[in-house]
Structures are given as structure tokens and as C-alpha cells.
Design a protein that fits this description.
homodimer; 219 residues; alpha/beta; Rossmann fold; two-stranded antiparallel ribbon; 11 strands; globular; P5C_Rdtase_cat_N (chains A, B); NAD(P)-bd_dom_sf (chains A, B); STEAP_metalloreductase (chains A, B); NADP oxidoreductase (chains A, B)
Chain lengths: 219, 219
């Protein structure tokens, strides 16, 4: 599958590299066509990796992973161009972190509590099928859940389009997620819940000095 | 031990009943001395249960459990009286839920994200040792963790006073919590993290139609 990865940070690199390992073709998108980290991403893969602007990547991808910083995600998708994202699935992995109050970050007030980044993206691009998932864990675990607890921990998913969620689940299965560990929380408004996991996630990370953990819903 | 339970709802009743079962003496406090639910609580226990105003209960307790609704907690503690809570441990189980935007509730803006109910209580009563714990799960599990997953799931704790946290951990042990499942997140500002669990908790509850679940940190 041709996949766009928007964002050149650790999350974009990890997601893009895993998708290539699984046989997909990835175009990494960034603000400019000659982004240094995107060039490094392309250089380290023998095949199936390319780079370009957000618009280049979105035009290329049959499905789009949003791996940009949450504060910049809506702008990045606007640069990608509404026509390039319309009708496609956008897998939103970003979190609306606000670093303006020091560490650990809080959530951007306008994109939390009674709203969310996932909803804001869906509202801004109504013809795009936004699926929120994977945003509650460190990127190493996103693409390799077996790294801890035998993979037996929970990944949340939400979005308005049931068929889009099914397609994303199939990709999650490729990453190693078992269906019984993927918990569908309903429509995209549940991003208010999953994005709000970050404040406790960051404090667990700080207390344990280990980011390679995830939550398992035990019932 | 003589323990005050502030609040006559399901959480207060569950915590108070379990404490009595464990041999403690409980006085349930409410806004008025003749609260109907507090009377029912007293009536169903053969011994060690009594009721009164918030002030009566706080004066009685060597340790105080705040089981009031989060929006009313600071006022309840003010009614309890600063002199009655000074120098004591206040175990804060409440969450600052805001029902004004419909269901599921969001968090009270002034008590979330860059602040928390736990911190507000600590700030309002600086001579009280506020310990936040148990607020991330259904009350049935608070006092009986073995009900799911053999008790192997995570209860967070935070607060500024290390000795107070140790005393609360000893009570948690009585409830059935093993030390390896009690995760200390540091000072009371970590209440910003644990109170922010509620938005995803409520959505998991809605999606699964089962409130008898908890999170386990898997690493």
C-alpha cells in the first residue's frame, strides 16, 4: 500500500520504517521538500522510501498517518491540501501537547477536555476519515506491541467511519496488535478520552524512568 | 483506627463499609447531621458506624477520606473546618467532573489540565496531608482489587508527604492492594495526571458496558 507519513520526528520515522519493513511504500512529508530528517529516513531504507512536502506525501498516500506535533497538525494537513486528503483515511497519532507551561506538558486548552485534536482534524476535513489510535504509548510499542507483556495490553481506536476503523485495524494487526487488544471506543469524540491519557502517561514515565510501557484494561 | 468518610454516595458507602469490615470505626459526614443515606449506612452496620456533619466526622477521624463529588469537595472540607482537618491525612478519591456539558462529563476547567482537585485541596488546607489515590477506578474495585485480574492491576498514589503516603499504602494493603501494584507518581501535582484518567475511563465504561475494570501498567 502507498502510505503518507506526515512528520519527520521519532514517531514518523518509527511508523514509516515499520511500514516499509512490512512491504509498504512510504512517502514522508514535511514542511519543505528538502527536510534533513526526511532525507535521512529515505537514505536508510533500500527501497520504498521517498520524501516530499506534506502535499507531495498526501497526494501519494492511499492512507495518511499524522505523526506531526499536535500543535501543528491542523496546519500540516492544511498544507497537505484538502483535495489530497479528501476521501482518505487519516490515522491520527498526534497529541495536543502544550509545552508553554513547562514540563511535563499540559494539553492545549482549545483542543482538550470538551474538544480534541482528533475532532478538530475531522471537523476541518469533513471528507477525510479520521481514525485516532496509537497515541497513548511510546512509538516503539506502537509498531511492536510484543516488546512488553507479550503484546497483551490495550490500544484504543476511535473514529466516525466503521469501515475506516476496520482498515486501520488491519494495519494494526500487521504491526502485531491482536484484535482482542484493540478497543474501539466509538466515534471520534472519544479522542477526548485517549488524548487525555497523556498527562498520566508522562507522569508514569517520569516516576519509572521507562517509556516502554502501556496500559492494559483488566476486567 | 477512627476514620472520617466525607460523602454519602456510593463511593463513601463502599469505602466506609469496607473500613468497618476491616475493624475500623467510621463516622460518615455530610452537609447535615440527619442525612438519610448516612442514617441508612449506620443502620446497616452492627457496630463502629456513626454519622454527623462534615465537621463532626472530621473531628472524629484520625484520617479523612474525601468521597464527596469533586465539584463540592473544597466546600465540604471547608465545612469540615480547617482545625478539624489540620495535621491529618486527607485521602482524596474525588474527581472534578463537570456535568454541565452533558454526558459523559468533562473535567471542571479550573480544576484540570494545569491544575487539579488534589492540588486545590492541598493549597486550601496547607496543614493537611493530601494523598490522592483510588480515583481512577470504580469503587467496588477500590476496596476489593482481587475482583478482576487476580488483583494484578495498578493503583496510582501521589502526595507531598512521604510518611502520609506510607500510612495510606498500609490502608490500601488492608483493602487488598499489593505494594507492587501501587505506583507512586510523586507529589500532589500528579493528580493532574490521575484525575485526567476519567475521560478515557468513562468512554471505556460506555464502550464495554462494564465498570469493573482497571488499568494495569504493563512494562
Amino acid at each position: 500500500m502507498k502510505i503518507a507519513v506526515l512528520g519527520t520526528g521519532m514517531v514518523g520515522d518509527t511508523i514509516g520504517s515499520r511500514l516499509i519493513e512490512l512491504g509498504h511504500e512510504v512517502k514522508m512529508g514535511s514542511r519543505t521538500a528538502d527536510n534533513e530528517k526526511a532525507r535521512a529516513f529515505v537514505a536508510k531504507h533500500e527501497r520504498n522510501a521517498s520524501a516530499g512536502t506534506f502535499a507531495d506525501a498526501a497526494a501519494f498516500g492511499e492512507i495518511i498517518f499524522n505523526c506531526t506535533a499536535g500543535a501543528a497538525s491542523v496546519d500540516a494537513l492544511k498544507m497537505a491540501g484538502e483535495a489530497n486528503v479528501a476521501g482518505k483515511i487519516a490515522v491520527d497519532i498526534a497529541n495536543p501537547l502544550d509545552f508553554s507551561n513547562g514540563m511535563p506538558p499540559s494539553l492545549i486548552p482549545a483542543l482538550s477536555n470538551t474538544h480534541s485534536l482528533g475532532e478538530e482534524i475531522q471537523k476541518t476535513f469533513p471528507a477525510t476519515k479520521v481514525v485516532k489510535t496509537l497515541n497513548t504509548m511510546w512509538c516503539g510499542l506502537m509498531v511492536n506491541p510484543a516488546m512488553v507483556g507479550g503484546g497483551d495490553h490495550t490500544n484504543f481506536i476511535c473514529g466516525n467511519d466503521a469501515e475506516a476503523k476496520q482498515q486501520v485495524k488491519a494495519l494494526l494487526n500487521e504491526f502485531g496488535w491482536k484484535n482482542e487488544n484493540i478497543l474501539d471506543l466509538g466515534d471520534i469524540s472519544s479522542a477526548r478520552g485517549t488524548e487525555a491519557v497523556l498527562p498520566v502517561w508522562l507522569r508514569i514515565w517520569n516516576a519509572t524512568q521507562n517509556g516502554a510501557f502501556n496500559f492494559k484494561v483488566v476486567s
